[in-house]
Write a structure and sequence with these properties.
heterodimer, A: 743 residues, mainly alpha, 0% strand, globular, B: 317 residues, 4-stranded antiparallel β-sheet, 28 strands, 50% strand
Chain lengths: 743, 317
């Protein structure tokens, strides 16, 4: 038998009815003998257009003759590893290098082909057919609905406001995919919007996934929108606070941790992987990051105003007039969003594979779970605490904190040691050793500085577009008047006009903050209050408001900071506070100080209010209720105090009492959106969904921008089996809703 | 007309040039932003009835496009988001597929087009700014065309000249190439915004259509490309794909991020002759059957594949 026949199996190998056969021996034959086999010729034939309904050319898995053919690829034992080895031994006298190449080809199909001709008959079988790790658990669903809301956010033209995510354990590669692809795709589906709107959307996505947002990697087109690009690059430094620039690091670090639970092994394996020079290159990388951080720092404070204008612009451009999208498609966005939230609330974020065994991860996980349990417990209760928990940066802040602390505590030492070893081995020159150490110090400092920056820039105030009060001769007076009348949304506009005109008007910012807080928008409230505090750092009302808002956002550290500042700047209690304390605030200390203050002057309602807030922080709701009640005895006409009492009662599962308190607040201030919404929540908690719907609708009629309330409304609608009104809810059609659910 | 639900988001749909009842669908998880991909091969039942799946191939990254071989009825080329180009042979068992995985593109491979004239070769366009020419019998690309300054979203062979193709890029140009020439033979600054797709008229080998993020489709005559032959306005978002009819020279199908599939006759005044609103998410894949006149298929991020006859409601049962 001719060798060719032996190798190819001759004509018998050609599978009848199929023109392709990936017989590795055929490939060998081709390579060795250098002529194409019949099967290849067959392939070149154009199959006739068979228009009959037949599966003849499709593998069915039951084709006996195929599997019994010797030499066919289905016959596993004939794979090169077994008989192929035999075969090769027989041919060792032949051109060895050639053979080796072919052999390589067959065995390493993943490698790019270095040489040699191929044909369909020797197509390598891809053995490495692994799929990406399938996040089949909840995180996948979370990610999916998350991306969905991103993708769909073009339809309402509204800025993408992501909900917080559990740790998803995205790898660096995944993150890069998300970063690159979403920034390219965003330019397709946000075509209407400005470049910086697109970037803001992508950044919102990336930052909430904790991805380093260097979207310039594949961002704006070269040459187009150059001004915008520059503008963007400038403002990006603001929008993407420092921690993200360090994310490369963070991710690298966590990955290592995952791979080698023992931190000591880290450096070692790094060396193994990258060789000794890896340190140097890593260091270079670091340096460039530090450099870019430094650049960002300079542009920071001065550009806050510019940044706010960017936001305004983006927001203006985001208005979409297309009725089709307003009506039918926006629906899905909202519904997916709210569903995503439900998923997250019901989701016991398990310590899944994602979490590294390291202390950092566990600690974070615990904290996260803690926060979650809290969110679960109170998700449906009053005051919107749970959903305000949904502030994305809150998460970032936590992560970052953990990071810096843990990292500096644990690993500087190991690193230094390891580095010393490296150095001892002479892997690096002296200079680079010094550089490295310095660079590392710089890096740590940067981390801390970046963290601080992130805290300040998180509260970027978003202005409304189309403000009729811009140009008003005295918007502050107008705003105060509107606020007094209870026209909160109007008051917000007037006050925005005021602070746009006089950006260091503390009173304007303060009132704006209060208006937002009463309008059930804590994010904006915090942003405005932070501006007020910047202008007037000792304003007691501002400090108290910031303390309350941060308590609403479950940010204990920040809340304590502001409450303590309140005490410190208070003319009466300032003496109680010792300045050295402000560095490390512990809840117990602060609470003790306020108790002292309360003993000092039991007639001061404010002290009792702060105590009430503090007890909310420590979740001692009974004490909180007592404090608020005391304060109310002193200040019975303070509607916000009634609301606080109601919210606390709701949190301590006294929803019926809460309704009375809210009612008091509403009697005093009928346009108190927050109290209306809270009322709805309390009814919902008691299972009175129809009632709750009426209150939500009322709140929304007064402030249609209260996104939380829309989500609560949706939940209540579905609980009340009023799916018929879902459409109206998703399209935010208040006319229909008000008609259907009058109060 | 029939409907098929894919587990992932649809990215592309193509009728087989050999069997009138057969379709290939490229899909990607999480809108192609992250996750796996799957290539489906579907069969339409002879009479109205469900669409059945006859094969499915999983990939480790989203599948952005698929093209049927013009030379072999069971061979498919898939453009995968990890940059690989994979060949699948339906006549082989799943374990043997993909029969080839070509790793040359350094970024997402976004489109694949099989040469209808020289039927052993195909093109892939990638976000690495290049177009690559491949033949089935070579393990490496024959040529790489690198001139575009940004992602190349599609490349399409001229229906008559086996050496000529056009490419559409995010650098706002479309280019016409002759594979025998060292550089592109024509640069068409066709739109002010990114160009996502292009296709050749099947009856006039000098006419191409380009589809852009600027929501328009423009039809050009490459002999006098200063002004477009026609500008088709009507989509309200970026136009994702454009396709000339294999049966009527002036008929164009398109799909868009506005979730609609549109049919156009660029020769007549009111060019928009059909609008299908059946998708509930971005419509990103559309094709017209070569074998059955008027048969359309579309897919979108709503994870649905529709097949319908022009003039009928895609959603009709």
């Amino acid at each position: 038998m001719a060798m060719r026949d032996l190798v190819t199996g001759g004509a018998a190998c050609a599978v009848p009815g199929s023109s392709s056969s990936s017989n590795p021996f055929g490939a060998l034959a081709n390579a060795l003998i250098g002529s194409s086999s019949k099967t290849q010729e067959r392939l070149k034939e154009i199959p006739t257009s068979a228009t009959t309904y037949s599966d003849g050319n499709v593998y069915t898995g039951t084709d006996e003759p195929l599997t019994t053919l010797p030499g066919s690829e289905f016959d596993r034992p004939l794979q090169p590893n077994v008989q192929g080895a035999e075969f090769f031994r027989g041919f060792h006298s032949a051109d060895q290098s050639r053979l080796a190449d072919v052999w390589e080809e067959i065995h390493n199909p993943q490698l790019p082909y270095s040489q040699g001709r191929g044909s369909l008959t020797h197509l390598p079988i891809e053995q490495n057919n692994q799929l990406q790790p399938d996040f089949d658990g909840p995180p996948q669903r979370v990610l999916s609905s998350f991306l969905h809301s991103f993708v769909n956010s073009n339809q309402g033209g509204i800025p993408f406001r992501p909900t917080p995510l559990p740790v998803l354990g995205l790898s660096e590669g995944d993150k890069q995919c998300i970063r690159d692809r979403s920034s390219i795709m965003a330019r397709h589906f946000f075509a209407d919007k400005s470049e910086d709107f697109i970037n803001a959307q992508v950044n919102a996505l990336l930052s909430s996934l904790d991805i380093d947002g260097d979207i310039r990697a594949r961002g704006p087109l070269p040459g187009r929108f150059r001004e915008l690009e520059d503008y963007w690059n400038e403002s990006q430094g603001m929008m993407k606070p420092g921690p993200h620039a360090a994310d490369g690091w963070v991710a690298e670090y966590t990955q290592r941790r995952v791979e080698h639970g023992d931190p000591n092994a880290w450096a070692h394996s790094f060396e193994l992987q990258h060789g000794a020079n890896g340190w140097a290159s890593e260091f270079e990388h670091e340096q460039s990051q530090i450099a870019s951080l430094n650049q960002m720092k300079g542009a920071n404070i001065a550009n806050l105003a510019a940044m706010e204008q960017t936001r305004m612009l983006a927001h203006t451009l985001a208005q979409n007039n297309d009725p089709k999208f307003q009506n039918s498609k926006f629906l899905q966005f909202v519904s997916k969003m709210s569903r995503g939230e439900i998923i997250m609330e019901d989701n016991q974020v398990k310590p899944n594979a994602v979490s590294a065994p390291g202390d950092w991860a566990t600690e974070y996980q615990q904290q996260f779970n803690g926060g979650h349990a809290w969110a679960d417990q109170f998700a449906h209760e009053a005051n919107g605490w749970a959903s305000e928990f949904a502030a994305e940066h809150d998460q970032n802040g936590l992560v970052d904190d953990q990071w810096v602390n843990e990292f500096s505590k644990l690993h500087v030492q190991d690193w230094a040691e390891e580095f010393g070893n490296q150095f001892g081995e002479g892997a690096l020159g002296e200079n680079s050793a010094d550089n490295w150490a310095n660079g590392y110090d710089d890096y740590l400092n940067e981390q801390i500085a970046a963290k601080q920056r992130s805290e300040t820039s998180r509260g970027v105030y978003e202005f409304s577009d189309m403000n009729p009060y811009v140009g008003h001769p005295n918007p502050l007076k107008e705003g105060q008047e509107l606020f007094r009348k209870g026209l909160l949304s109007e008051a917000v506009l007037a006050l925005e006009a005021e602070v746009l005109k006089n950006s260091d008007n503390a009173e304007g910012w303060r009132l704006l903050g209060i208006a937002h807080a009463e309008n059930d928008d804590d994010q904006q409230a915090i942003a405005a209050m932070m501006r007020a505090q910047e202008v007037d750092p000792t304003n007691l009302e501002v400090l108290l408001a910031l303390g309350v808002s941060h308590t609403n956002e479950l940010e204990q550290a920040a809340a304590l900071k502001y409450l303590y500042s309140w005490l410190r700047h208070h003319p009466k209690y300032g003496t109680l506070a010792r300045p050295e304390m402000s560095d490390s605030l512990y809840y117990a200390d602060v609470a003790r100080l306020f108790n002292e203050a309360a003993q000092m002057s039991p007639e001061d309602a404010d002290v009792h209010v702060v105590l009430g807030v503090l007890f909310n922080l420590s979740r001692e709701f009974d004490k909180a209720i007592a404090s608020f009640k005391t304060a109310l005895k002193l200040k019975p006409r303070d509607y916000s105090l009634w609301n606080k009492l109601g919210a606390t009662q709701a949190n301590s599962v006294q929803s019926a009492d809460a309704i009375d308190a809210y009612q008091q607040a509403l009697d005093l201030k009928p346009n108190y959106v927050r109290a209306w919404a809270n009322m709805g929540i309390s009814y919902a908690n008691q299972g009175m969904y129809e009632e709750s719907i009426r209150y939500y609708v009322r709140a929304l009629a007064m402030n249609p921008k209260a996104d939380n309330a829309w989500q609560y409304l949706r939940i209540s609608l579905s609980c009340a089996s009023r799916n018929d009104m879902m459409q109206a809810c998703d399209s935010r059609n208040l006319d229909v809703l008000q008609k259907e659910f009058p109060l | 007309m029939p409907l098929f639900k894919t587990p992932f988001n649809g990215y592309s749909v193509k009728f087989s040039p050999f069997y009138e009842h057969r379709l290939a669908v490229a899909t990607a998880q999480n809108f192609g932003i992250l996750g796996n991909g799957r290539l489906h091969v579907l069969d339409l039942s002879p009479s109205p009835g469900p669409i059945s799946e006859i094969a499915a191939f999983d990939t480790a990254d989203g599948v952005y496009d698929v093209a049927w071989s013009e030379s072999h009825d069971s061979l498919l080329v898939a453009a995968v988001a990890d940059g690989s180009v994979k060949l699948y042979d339906l006549s082989l068992p799943p374990a043997s597929n993909p029969v080839r995985s070509l790793h040359e593109h350094t970024r997402e491979a976004h489109s694949a087009d099989y040469n209808p004239v020289r039927r052993d070769s195909f093109l892939t366009a990638s976000w690495d700014d290049t177009v690559k020419l491949w033949t089935v019998d070579r393990p490496t690309s024959v040529r790489t065309f690198k001139e575009h300054a940004y992602c190349v979203y599609s490349a399409a062979w001229n229906p008559r000249h086996g050496d000529v193709f056009a490419s559409a890029s995010g650098d706002c140009t479309a280019r016409v190439w002759d594979v025998r020439e060292p550089c592109s033979t024509m640069i068409l600054p066709a739109h002010e915004f990114e160009i996502l797709s292009c296709d050749w008229n099947k009856y006039d080998d000098c006419v191409i259509a380009t589809a852009s993020v600027d929501k328009s489709i423009k039809v050009w005559d490459v002999r006098s490309y200063r002004v477009p032959v026609a500008v088709l306005n009507g989509h309200s978002y970026a136009v994702r794909k454009v396709k000339f009819s294999p049966h009527r020279g002036s008929l164009i199908a398109s799909c868009s991020y506005d979730m609609t599939v549109c049919l156009w006759d660029y020769m007549v005044e009111d060019a928009l002759i059909g609008r299908y609103d059946h998708h509930t998410e971005f419509a990103v894949g559309v094709d017209m059957s070569v074998l059955v006149e008027g048969l359309l298929a579309s897919t979108g991020w709503d994870e649905l594949v529709y097949v319908w006859q022009h003039g009928t409601d895609p959603r009709a049962p």
